C-alpha cells in the first residue's frame, strides 16, 4: 500500500493539483475571495449528486482555512477512499468550459480521456493515508 511517507504519493498529489490548477479561470466569490479547484470540485460533485461524503469530511476539518488546503485534503480523501469522485467532476464538459480556459488538458477530449483512464487505474492501488 501507498502511505504518507511515499515519495510517489507526494509526486502524484502535486501532479493532480497542477492539472486542476492549470489554466483555471479566475473566479471570485460574492465576497471577493478567489475561487480555486476546490470550488470546481464542489460544484462538479453537486451537479452529479446531492451530497458527497468527502466534501462533508473536508469541510468538517477545522484546521483547513483555504480553498487550496481543502482541495489537497479532498485529493487525499479521494485516493484513500477510492471511487470515482474526481472522475465525475471531469465528465461534465459544460462545467469544464465554465471553469477552465482552452489550454486546459480537461478541454481536450483525448487528453481528458487519458487523465480519466489514469484516475480509474488508481482505484486499483491501496492508499493508507492519514486523513
Automatic annotation (TrEMBL):
UniProt keyword Zinc-finger, yes or no: yes
Q: Which Gene3D superfamilies match?
A: 1.20.58.900
Compartment(s) where it occurs, according to its Swiss-Prot or TrEMBL record: Cytoplasmic vesicle, Autophagosome; Lysosome
Keywords of this entry:
Autophagy, Coiled coil, Cytoplasmic vesicle, Lysosome, Metal-binding, Zinc, Zinc-finger
GO MF annotation terms: zinc ion binding
Q: What does this protein do?
A: ARL8 effector that promotes the coupling of endolysosomes to dynein-dynactin for retrograde transport along microtubules. Acts by binding both GTP-bound ARL8 and dynein-dynactin. In nonneuronal cells, promotes concentration of endolysosomes in the juxtanuclear area. In hippocampal neurons, drives retrograde transport of endolysosomes from the axon to the soma. Positive regulator of macroautophagy in dendritic cells. Increases autophagic flux, probably by stimulating both autophagosome formation and facilitating tethering with lysosomes.
Q: In its UniProt entry, what is this protein called?
A: RUN and FYVE domain-containing protein 4
Amino acid at each position: 500500500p501507498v502511505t504518507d511517507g511515499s515519495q510517489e504519493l507526494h509526486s502524484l498529489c502535486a501532479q493532480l493539483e497542477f492539472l486542476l490548477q492549470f489554466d483555471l479561470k479566475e473566479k471570485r466569490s460574492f465576497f471577493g475571495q478567489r475561487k480555486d479547484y476546490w470550488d470546481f470540485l464542489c460544484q462538479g460533485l453537486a451537479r452529479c449528486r446531492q451530497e458527497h461524503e468527502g466534501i462533508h469530511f473536508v469541510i468538517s476539518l477545522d484546521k483547513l482555512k483555504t480553498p487550496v488546503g481543502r482541495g489537497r485534503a479532498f485529493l487525499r480523501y479521494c485516493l484513500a477512499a477510492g471511487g470515482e469522485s474526481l472522475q465525475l467532476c471531469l465528465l461534465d464538459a459544460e462545467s469544464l468550459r465554465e471553469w477552465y480556459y482552452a489550454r486546459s488538458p480537461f478541454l481536450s477530449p483525448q487528453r481528458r480521456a487519458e487523465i480519466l483512464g489514469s484516475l480509474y487505474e488508481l482505484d486499483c492501488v491501496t492508499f493508507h493515508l492519514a486523513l
